[in-house]
Every structure is written in structure tokens, then in C-alpha cells.
Amino acid sequence: MDQAEGASRWRILAVLLGVIFMSLIGVSIVNVALPSIQVGLDADQSDLQWVLSGYALTFGIILVAAGRAGDIVGRGGIFLVGVGIFTLSSVAAGFASDATWLNAARFVQGIGSGLISPQVIGMIQHYFRGEDRGKAFGYLGTAVGVSVAIGPVLGGFLIGVGGPELGWRLTFLVNVPIGIIAVILGMRWFPKPLFRRPPAAPASGTDRPASWLWSLDPVGSVLLGLALLAILYPFMQSNASALWWGLLPVGAVLVWLWVRWEQRCPRLGHTPMVDLDIFRTSSFTNGTAIMTLYFTGMTSIWVLVALYVQDGQGKTAFESGLFGIPSALLSAYAAHWSGRRVNHYGRRIVIGGLFLALFGLAASIAVVFLHERFDVSVWWLMLSLAFIGIAQGAVISPNQTLTLAEVPLEYAGSSGAIMQTGQRVGTSVGIAVITAAVFASLARWSWSVAVVIGFSLISLVVLVALAMAFKDQRDRRRIVASKAASDVGEPRPVYISDTQF
């Protein structure tokens, strides 16, 4: 297993999951801490928006370049650098004296998290195979679910203990001991060397090797980063002007330039950031599309629930957080369960999860309608949203396993980062469009009608994701049938991927 045999793989996974747990708790805690930050730093609404958006922006921009850097110079080393940056920026955020300082620290935190995330996917791909890989991704999904459930509760506790001035600072500083422990254990347990100098590729048309820096594809990194900045930025503005929306066609042009450059790189003797041939692998292309669509719709649910129960029903922020706890815990269990079985049931688990998502959305619409017409308790949403949690556990981790199953290991980090970039773009676009539709509906109708409209739009997006899942299932069956036809008369081993329908 490439310097990580047996039990040592699971120790590596423990470090990875601990850091992911830390980073995700950090995200959910910040959501709870925003009112305290506003009071403590005398921040305005624009400042608060950038506490969230600045982190998300730098995180999304750096993902693919960070994934490729890990593939080339060492995933373990890049991971630990990311943990160090995230931890130090958490210290800076915790001691921020004004909103500008805090937002600068959040930008840097996003960079640290962007360095970490693709290495986690790449290292799971590298060190785990077959059923163990599915289990590892299942544990990753469990860590995500538990962190989402614990984050708001821990944030509320820290703010209650520390008060309005110290409490929100503790929500950042709580990351520091976890980060320090992760760096120490990573230095001890990760295979050595943590970094490696990549071999220089021959320059085009010469025998003289090109600089090893070209293996990191700096031109491609800049082009893709600018493209994502142009695409994401308008969706992160609460009242974006027409000028900012004009960045979208600029982003499309930059994506086209990036693709052209990546195609040209091999002819120049350079290593591309992303091997575009990976998109010829239907399982990767279909799985990335499923994940992008899923995040475009489903991440908006919790935004709508928070708005509905607080602004529409007069609940407190703490009460709003309680609505998601059963969902998050069931998501953690479902991720663990499906991770152990994804290599047997394959795409059927994802399809089942998407059907559960549609059922949960329909049930939530029914609860909102019955509350409006017959005064049924809005707390029944905890039950309907529980199906959303099961769906999340059955879709996200299994889809990662299936999507990356045929990706070459040398592109594991960058390919995983492409999938995560799709998630980030989907999340930003979905939240912006769906919440805009809900607020537009409020101009004419009640909160209940507006939320039903929002849930209905999410359902349409999930239906498209479901159609892509059925397409992937059909493509897998066709590939297996083609292999069987070509091997007629010859003994052939049965591969795990043959069962992933």
C-alpha cells in the first residue's frame, strides 16, 4: 500500500477525519456566532456576509490547484501545511480587533481548508482499495454528519459560557488544540518523505528538462482560479449589481481558455493540472454531475428552514438549530451503513438516497401546508427532515466512492477537487437562485407558500440528479455488457466495479 500497510492506514484516516471534523465544526459554529460577532465587533451586514462568503470564495478557488499540488509534491505534506494555515488563521480570527481583521483571517482560513480537503480525498483513494475504500468514505460521511449536528450546539455552549465578547472568539480558538494535535500525529504517522521533488519533464522539442515548477501547471492554476472567482463572486453578493453579473460570461471565457491550455500542455512538454481525458470516464463525469446537482438543490434546504422557523414562525436561533439534529445524526449513520455496502449495491444506494430526498421534501411541504391550514405543529419538520439526513448519508459518500473508482491515482487529488469544486459552484448558485425565488414570493404570499415554492424548486433539481444517476447506472451496465461480449470464450475475473449498478 505504498508505505502505509495494515493498521497504519487507519491511523492516517483518523488524522484526516479529525481535521475534517475540526474544519466543518468551524463552519457550522460560525453560523451560530454571527449575531455575537455583530455585537462584539460592531460589524454591519456586509461584514457578516463576508465572514461566510470570504471563506467559501478562497476555499472554492484553491481546490483544484491544491489537489494537483498534492498529487505532484506529496499529499501528506500539503495536508499538514493546510492544517497549519487553518490553525494559525483560527488564532488570528479569535483575536480579531475589528471586522476587517476577522474577514482577512477568514480568507486565509478558506485557503487552509482548500489545501486540506482535496488531500483527504486523494489520500483515501491512495491508501484504501475495494471495500475498505467504501468504509473509509463512509467514516468520512459519518464525521461530516456528526460535526454538522454538534457544531451549532457547541457554538451555543461556548457563546453561553464566554458571553457576547469572549464567546464568539472561543468558536474560532476551539480549532487550535485539534490542529496542533493533528500536525503532531501527521508528522509522526504519515509516510515519509512528506514532500517530494517532482521529476522535470522534457521541454517540447528539446532534450533539456523543463523546470519542475511546470509540473504544477501555474498557468492553468491561475486561469482556473480567475474563472472560479468570476463565476462565484456574483452569487456571493447579497445585492449584486448588473456589473457584477457581467462577470459570468467572463468566467465562461476563462473556463474555455483553461480547457484550451490544458489540451495544449502535453504538446509543450508540460504536465496539465487536470488530465481532461478523465472526463471520458463516464463514471467520473456522471458522478461529478450528480454531486453538483445535488448540492445545487439540497444545501438550500437548511437555509430555508432557518429562515422559515425564525422569521416565519418566530423561533429562536437555538430552536432553529434543533430542527437539524435528527437529520445530521441519521446522516452520519447512513453514511457509515452505505460506505460498508457501496461496493455491493453500487449506484442503487445513490438512487435510493435521491428517492428518499424527494420523499423528505414532499413530507416537509406537507408539514408546512398542514401547519398553515390546520395549525399542525411545525416541529413535525424534524421528522420529515430526518429523511433528508438519511438521503445525505446515502448519496454523498457512496457517490464519492463510485465517482473516483476508475480515476488514476496520480490524478486522485485533482480529480477529487474537481468534484468538490462542482459542489462549491452548485452550493453558491443554488442558494442564490432558490433564496431569491423565496424572497420574491414573499412579496405576494406568506412564508409558508414561499417555502413550499423553494422546496418545490429543490425537488426539480433533485429529479435531474436522479435522472443522471439512472444514466450512470445504464452506462455501467453497458460497459459491463461490452466487456462480457469481448471476453466471450475467455475466462475473466469478476471485478467489484461490475456490481456497481
Automatic annotation (TrEMBL):
It is a multi-pass membrane protein. It comes from the Bacteria. The chain crosses the membrane at residues 12-36, 48-66, 78-95, 107-124, 136-160, 166-190, 211-236, 242-259, 289-309, 321-337, 349-371, 377-396, 425-443, 449-470. The keyword Membrane applies. PROSITE patterns: MFS (PS50850). InterPro entries: MFS, MFS_dom, MFS_trans_sf. Keywords: Membrane, Transmembrane, Transmembrane helix. Its main location: membrane. Pfam families: MFS_1. It is found in: Membrane. Gene3D superfamilies: MFS general substrate transporter like domains, Multidrug resistance protein D. This is MFS transporter. It comes from Novilysobacter avium.
